[in-house]
C-alpha cells in the first residue's frame, strides 16, 4: 500500500505521512518500538517538508504523530526526548486555530 501511494503522490506527500503513522501504530502494537519510532519520525519529516513548501495540513494529525513519537521515546527509555515531543504536541495543539478545547494531550 505504501509503495502504491508513493508512486501516486510522491514520497513527501501528506498522505504518505498518514500511512507511515498508521504503520507505526501497527509496529507499536507488535511491540516493535524502534520500527514504530522510525515510521513516526519519517512521517514528521514529511510534515516538515510540507510545511516548508507552505502547504496546508491538519495540525491535529501532526500533533498525534508528535505524541506517538514521544510515547516511543518514553517506551525505549529516552524520557528527555519524549518530553520534547510531548511539549511540541502541546504547543501545536495550543496554536491550532480549530483546537477549541483545553490545551491537553493524552499520553
TrEMBL record:
Transmembrane segments: none annotated. Keywords: TPR repeat. TPR repeats lie at residues 63-96. Gene3D superfamilies: Tetratricopeptide repeat domain (1.25.40.10). Pfam families: TPR_10, TPR_12. This is MalT-like TPR region domain-containing protein. It comes from Corethron hystrix.
Amino acid at each position: 500500500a505504501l509503495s502504491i501511494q508513493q508512486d501516486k503522490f510522491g514520497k513527501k506527500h501528506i498522505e504518505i505521512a498518514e500511512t507511515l503513522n498508521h504503520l507505526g501504530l501497527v509496529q507499536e502494537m507488535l511491540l516493535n518500538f524502534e520500527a514504530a519510532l522510525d515510521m513516526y519520525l519519517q512521517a514528521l519529516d514529511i510534515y516538515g517538508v510540507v510545511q516548508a513548501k507552505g502547504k496546508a495540513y491538519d495540525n491535529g494529525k501532526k500533533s498525534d504523530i508528535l505524541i506517538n513519537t514521544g510515547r516511543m521515546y518514553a517506551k525505549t527509555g529516552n524520557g528527555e526526548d519524549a518530553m520534547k515531543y510531548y511539549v511540541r504536541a502541546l504547543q501545536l495543539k495550543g496554536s491550532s486555530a480549530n483546537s477549541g478545547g483545553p490545551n491537553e494531550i493524552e499520553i
